[in-house]
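Late entry, written up from scratch paper. The run itself happened at the end of the previous shift, but nothing got recorded in the book at the time, so transcribing now.
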Amino acid sequence: MERLWSKVTNAYQRNGLIEIGSKSLDLALSKFKLYNLYIDKNIIEQKRYVDRLTNSGFGIPLYNKNIQTHKSSDELFILGSGSSINDISQDQWEYIGSQDSIGLNRWPLHDFTPTYYVFEVPSKDLGVQMRIDFWNLLNHKRDEYSSIPIILKDIRRFHNTNLNKHPDWLSKSILLSPDIVLPPVLSNSRKEFRSVLQYINQTGYFSNNSSMEYLFKKVGSISYLIILGCKLGYEKIILCGVDMVNNKYFWDHKRDELKQKDIPIPESSRSNKQEIHSTNDPSVHNITLEEIIYELNEIVLKDKNIDLYTETKVSSLYPRIPHYNTHTN
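Output as recorded:
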């Protein structure tokens, strides 16, 4: 902690963000000491959850596995759930297949198999059937997914879950990812989030090959995946199906087909009739996912010379986040 503290203070002074002996220095140090205490507390708590699961014979800590061995390109496609996924052509899928990709949550409902797969399951009190449907969906895709890293995030929700329903083949291979929500200490404003990102960036946390001991997130899993892509050292990150303009999903049009094939759809209770996705609704979140992505791009990705794109112009991120054309890149 003290070494980290000294490193951050020196970095802030070198970059003129705070001055020795100034009130801004005292305020900044007090604020970031609170963040360090919060992070340390959460690391201990998250590791306790991981230990509880691994001691029961379930999973491997992500920080004990080098998933970078699966990295085979400089580009990473993050595969979200938005309906614009259905607009991607076969030629584009062939290009995406030549690069690395991460599928998120219900991605196994799609025929394309990604390089990595990240998902979360609801707590036992909120989604018993949805959790069972996830296990059944993964079982259905066992042949395609058994050889790729499968990462379970939000283990806080999962650590006390009955493990009897999960597929046996996942027990020794699923990767358990401790994650921490930011910024919860002083306020939940965009300004505070920006301040926290600047602070964390100064510690070297976002550097390539840095520890996977814990991953940060904020409002939805896309922020987690962007940070994961950053830490894995990708030079370009392309967001696919990150529409945020409604709650329409890529599998909506083929529900009957999935049902006929006896493929379960892990359903949440959230309505898909809203005009705006809940992660991007300012009445739901003080900081929307769109704002979080902008801050990650400006403070973290650009500092690391990582280019961020959206695959679709339908996304609320466009045009501030440029469009990526697989035919010209």
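The mean pLDDT is 85.
(Scratch paper discarded after transcription.)
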